Amino acid sequence: MVHLLPPSALADIPRASKGSLQRGRAYQQYEPLIAKIYKDFEEGRSISLVPEGATANGSVNGKRALAGDELVAWLIDTIERLRGGGGDAAASAERKKDKPISGDTDLFVAGVDSIQAARIRAAIHQHIELGGQLLQKNVVYDYPTPALLASHIQEVGEGRPGGAADGESAQAKRDDTQHRLMEQLVEKYSSFPALDVGPNQTGDDEQRELVVLTGVTGALGAHLFDQVRARCAQAPARIVCLVRAEDEERARTRVLTSLKARRLPSSVEHVEASGTAEVLCLAADLAASTTCGLSEDQLRQLSVGCGRVTTVHAAWAVNFVGSLQSFEAEQIAGLRNLIQLHRRLAAAAGSSDRSHFAFCSSVASILGAPPSTEFHTALSVAGDGDEAYAETLPSSPRTAAAMGYARSKWVAEHICARYGRQTGEGCSVMRFGQLCSDTAGGVWNESEGWPLLIRTADEVGCLPMLDDERLAWLPVDVAAASIVDLVRPSSPADAAGGDSGDVPIYHLVADAAKAAPWESLLVWLSREMDFERVSPRRWIERLEADEERIKARGMLELWRRNYAAAPSSGGGSSSSSSGAKPARIDASHAQAGSASLRSAPPVDEQLIRRTVTAWRQSGFLGQSN
């Protein structure tokens, strides 16, 4: 947003003796004006966006009284204009390649960011009659498709709960709707009928293992490939990487690019030197069908000469603003299809009773309610008496954190549990906490939340003091090694898992008791970067003031939710901003089955220094002064 001051105001702008702008004093001096600018923007008084061909028909006080399909069409047209406007020519050209928006399109999957979401809300306020009501600030996040948004606008305009003044009751209604949808999705995707597939061979333990991996183009999947490749020296296996690509050559290129980006030279050499019998990079589409887009000939060839089949599903959209609905078509349906593909390969290899399917989930699926509430079916107690989240499968959808990503993981876990219970075939769920850079190269996925937060030190010159936060981060290479420990145990007792019927649940998380405090991270980073330490609220204000400089603007709304209400003197935390001690996550079963997890090193200054160096080499961070 831009507000032009008159020339006469130039002499009043606070400046230092050298003539440079005194940013802090300027913020204080113009605080009332800045507040008014934001209020005018949010209430639709500082934006003008009227679709071409709009008329005053049906208008009330200059605003349009639209409903049903007309309102959906108006929203689609308005959103398309906002998506197509602004930015450089390259960005505009790229947007023109996007698929057209429909009534059921998830706007954030379609590329809408936080700024565009705010503009959509402002345009609605300016042009649509709402009976004097205002929409909640997060309305586009809470109703992320044009159809859902239109329905909500009608409810608000008719005086039903849901406007800015109905915060808690409206949120409770939305949560109840999402919880019902979670249970419906579990039912929809949990049918696993008997397969009409006979073995094309007699499976035996002397044959090599078939390892099917997804997500190898991501950080965890790349390190998982590296770990499996290293252990294949003792127990040969055929590794199959299922990759979203147009053909096998492009799939192989994507895998190599990922391994190179994670600085895994031995795995790069292995893929480049291997014949098709050892490593296969196949173009796949998990959402396409129960064969995941593979041909019948490919399916026949995969299991030839193989015994046990191990499938690890490490591919999932990391989208913290998308709705639960946005995960159904690609992720949830894709999970069921991959399970069916795994079952078919195991049956063809004659090893259904010895094969295993592992799903990589997130602790976000259980962090929506404290472990002592009635929504959790079991409670662990740490050695010091603290409550802890158990390695179990809660039956209530209320246990998932209130965002589409966490809810989709809850759904996926229950689909996996249904699969294991219905068929008696091997299946497990691996819940991960926060992963970080690997211990060797210091490479950390630059699109993740913590790296993006740390980069704001470069962008606005400050970082927040999160006094309750601890660096309970697990290096990604340790996480990958732990998966292999658990899906390829040296003995059955090593992988007993948590008590969830016949489906083991594992928590692959760092030991919180050994984790350094957030203050240590700020100290370590200050030796590598120049920045100011500020309260979480002040940090949010600085981000909002310089929003155009923030490359991760899509994270701003999430950061507002987590930190804007934190005390002005600091003390905020992503896990607790109230001062309450966050509950621990029990990992005793995972630690019992994984030597890698038991010996996992805590995050220290050496790892942070290595990580900052890697970010500078990639250009993610600027060079040191």
Describe this structure in words.
There is one protein chain. With 625 residues, the chain is α/β, with parallel strands linked by helices. The chain folds into three domains: 59-160, Orthogonal Bundle (Non-ribosomal Peptide Synthetase Peptidyl Carrier Protein, Chain A); 209-358 and 375-391 and 398-428, Rossmann fold; 433-625, Rossmann fold (3-Layer(aba) Sandwich). Helix content is 41%, strand content 11%. The protein is built from 22 helices and 16 strands. The protein has helices spanning 23-29, 31-42, 68-84, 89-96, 114-127, 139-142, 146-157, 167-188, 219-231, 248-261, 265-273, 296-302, 328-348, 404-423, 449-460, 476-487, 518-526, 536-545, 556-563, 588-593, 595-598, 605-618, and strands at 59-60, 63-64, 208-214, 237-243, 279-283, 306-313, 356-362, 379-381, 387-389, 426-432, 435-436, 462-464, 474-475, 505-508, 532-534, 584-585. The strands form five sheets. A seven-stranded parallel sheet has the order 5-4-3-6-7-10-14, sandwiched between helices. Strands 8-9-16 form a three-stranded mixed sheet, with no helix packed on it. It has a two-stranded antiparallel sheet with strand order 1-2. α13 (328-348) links the parallel β6 and β7 (356-362). α8 runs parallel beside α14 (404-423) and α17 packs across α22. The relative contact order is 0.08. The model is unreliable at 50-57, 86-96, 490-500 and 573-580 (pLDDT under 50).
